[in-house]
Predict the structure of Methylmalonyl Co-A mutase-associated GTPase MeaB.
Amino acid sequence: MPDADPVADLAEGIAAGDRRALARGITLVESTRTDHREQAARLVDAVLGRTGDAVRLGISGPPGVGKSTFIESFGTRLTGAGHRVAVLAVDPTSSRSGGSILGDKTRMEDLARDPGAYVRPSPSGGELGGVARRTREALLLCEAAGFDVVLVETVGVGQSEVAVADLTDLFVLLASPAGGDDLQGIKRGIMELADVVVVTKADGDLARAAAHAAADIRRALHLLRPRHEEVAPQVVEASAVDGRGVGEVWEAVEAAHAALRASGGLDRLRAAQARAWLWSELRGALELRLRTDRAVAEALPDVEAEVGAGTLSPAAGAARLLDLLGAS
């Protein structure tokens, strides 16, 4: 009798919708251990045929805009309509301890208890843009487990929005009802990524301010080139407190996703993202080989010293080390 294959068993559990298997699978793909990386690649390959049908949605916004509160309200609305929602909340990682600052589900307690939802905080690992390096793989595992909407919440630290746009279909930008002041804090490049802009806290005393902010954002978007030719960016005023506008956000997302799919733009987008993922993996693998190669390790201190002293250019130093790698 052949030995059991733990990776195959894990893939079967994920495909069957076993939450514990999904949690173990995401932990595996997040691991940096060499043996785990090989197993993680096998796991993703095993479930790849069950992926691709979900709406992949990135959500970000400046601090204090109410991301977690909005996502909880939004996710609950979707599960109430029969959707299965996975939330990959990429938390900032402490530069001192290496631990996740937020690290748990306390920000979305109600959604985390919802049987139709799965909330997974994930430390960013210091990755550029705040998006965990393995978020792509975690997203695929969630799709394989039967979640038809996957939300990726970024830490909102500048380049995180660009990073999340490279692995999702559509991008939702949250803005507070502060009008032009808030617009000044959102970089033009970030605004150009947005397929839907949601002005949050549009209730009570802030309702009028939210309306003014929405009008300002609509005027600003008219001056920018949309991310997708098929999708005209929409601006929605929403309140997570009374639910106003939350359903409209999903309607805007559905319409944009349908337009992308119908035009073939979704297939082209995901193909481009897969190619970018390939190059990201190549860069990571090359860096690992450089750091673990004996000949490179021996030469590296001298090369770094020469570069630091200004007697060797960084380009020439890199070429020298790459030549050693090829010869080893």
Q: What stands out?
A: The CA atoms of residues 153 and 182 lie 20 Å apart. Residues 93-104 have pLDDT under 50 and may be disordered.
